[in-house]
Amino acid sequence: MDLKHSHSVKLNDGCCMPVLGFGTYAAQDTPKSKAAEATRVAIDVGFRHIDAAYLYQNEEEVGEAIREKIADGTVKREDIFYTTKLWATFFRPELVRPALERSLKKLGLDYVDLFIIHVPFAMKPGEEMLPEDASGEVILETVDLRDTWEALEKCKDAGLTKSIGVSNFNHKQLELILNKPGLKYKPVCNQVESHPYLNQSKLLAFCKSKDIVLVAYSTLGSHRDPKWVDKDSPHLLEDPVLKAIAKKHGRSPGQVVLCFQLQRGVVALAKSFNEKRIKENFQVFDFELTPEDMKAIEGLNRNFRYITFQFATSHPYYPFSEEY
User: Site described as Lowers pKa of active site Tyr, positions (predicted)?
Assistant: First the structure.
C-alpha cells in the first residue's frame, strides 16, 4: 500500500504532504539518542512525515535514524517527507541559506521536503537559541518577513528544499507574504498550535480560502517543558468529553483528537517517544468520528494556548494579539 499518497494532501506547489506527521521535539532533559530511537520506530510503524527543527537540537540523531531506515530498505528517500524550520536568529536574508545548509549537514541529506519560518518575530543573530541581554530579556530584532521569505524562495530554487511555508503566523502575517510584490511562491502551509481547546477554526477557514494547508502542532495537548509551557496548563487528554467519545469508539483520547483534525482537513503532528503510543497514534485511519462527535469536540474550544512566546509580546510581529 502506498502510504505516502493514500494519506496525503496535495500542496499548492504540486508536492504531496502526508496528513499525519511524527513530531521530534523533546524537552531539554530528554537524551538525544531517544529522538533517533523514536524516529526509527515511527518509520517502522508507518509514519512518512517527520517534523523537525533546528531549535530542537536533535537533527543529527533524527537524520541518522532516517538514513538507517533508507539503508536497511524500509523506505527510500523519496518516501519520507521531512520538515525543518528556520529559527528566529537566522531571519536576515543572508543567514537563511547557511541555516538550511547547516541543518542538511547535520541530517546527512541533500534536501528537505519542507522548510518553514518557525515564528514570525526575529531575534538577534548568533549561536544562542534565545539571546538574552544583561537583565535576562530576550533580544528581539525586526527583519521584514518578506525579505526572509524571498531568501526561502531562493532555497527552493536551489533545490535545497522542495516546498516552503511558515509557522505560528496569524492571517495578517500570511497576507503580508501573499501580497508581497514579486511573490514567486506562496507558503504551502502554516504550522500552528491546534487542538480541541484551540481549534483555530477562523485561521483554518482563512488558510483553506488561500490554498494553504494548516498543520497542527501540540495536537495532543502539550509536553510540560517548563521553558515554554505553564505547568498548571490543563491536560487535554484527560477531558471527559474526549474520554467519552474515545470509549464509544474503543479508542484512546489521543486517537480521537488526531482523527478530529484529519476529518476537518488539518494535517496533524503527533509527538511521542513512547513506542506503544507511537504505534497507537498511527492507527487513526480505520475509524471515523460522527458529525455529533465532531460537534461535541468543536464545543470544547476555549482559545487556550499552551505555547504563548510571552517573551516576544513587545515585538511588532508578535502573532497572538490578533484573533486569528
Answer: 85
Give residue 29's pLDDT. Answer: 75
Cell 506503544 sits at which residue? 276
Q: What DSSP string runs through 72-130?
A: TTS--GGG-EEEEEE-GGG-SHHHHHHHHHHHHHHHT-S-EEEEEES-SSEE--SS-SS
Beta strands 140-141 and 122-123, pairing class: antiparallel
- Using 50, 70 and 90 to split pLDDT, how confident is the model at 232? confident
Tally of structural domains, the chain: 1
Neighbour count for residue 298 (Cβ, 10 Å): 13
Residue 130 lies in a domain: yes
pLDDT at 226: 65
Give the number of other Cβ atoms within 10 Å of residue 207's Cβ.
24
Bridge partners (DSSP) of residue 142 are none
Enter the pTM of the model: 0.95
CB 149 within 8 Å of CB 157: no
**What pLDDT is stored for residue 225 in this prediction?**
66
324 occurs within a structural domain: no
Residues marked as catalytic: 56
Three-class secondary structure of residue 166 per DSSP: strand
**Domain hosting residue 122, numbered range:** 3-319
Backbone angles phi, psi at 284, to 5 degrees: -125, 10
Is 195 annotated in some ligand binding site? Answer: no
> Domain containing 200 — which CATH number?
3.20.20.100
Q: Is 185 left (phi over 0), alpha (psi -120 to 50) or beta?
A: beta
Interval 238-285: pLDDT, tens: 999 999 999 999 999 999 999 999 999 999 999 999 999 999 999 999
